[in-house]
Amino acid sequence: MVLIRRPGPGRPTFSASFSIPVQHAKIPAVTSLLEIHQQKLQWIRQAQGDNRRLIENLQNINRELNADALQLKLCIIYNSKLQE
């Protein structure tokens, strides 16, 4: 029940509204749509988890490549100093 204050001349001070929960399970079409919606949400959550893991893997690969690139630069600098 929800009470709403409605001040004003000729109006009640409060009005009440009641809501009755809808029984979705009794209507096959609604049940089917709810199941489809829940399945899609599950797929989205799974894809989000997969994407997080892929991003973490790519970040790790990027860090490794950056470390390799730095090592290569240091080798080039070291070799150029040896040749001087």
TrEMBL record:
Put simply, this protein is called Uncharacterized protein
Organism from which the protein derives: Panagrolaimus sp. PS1159
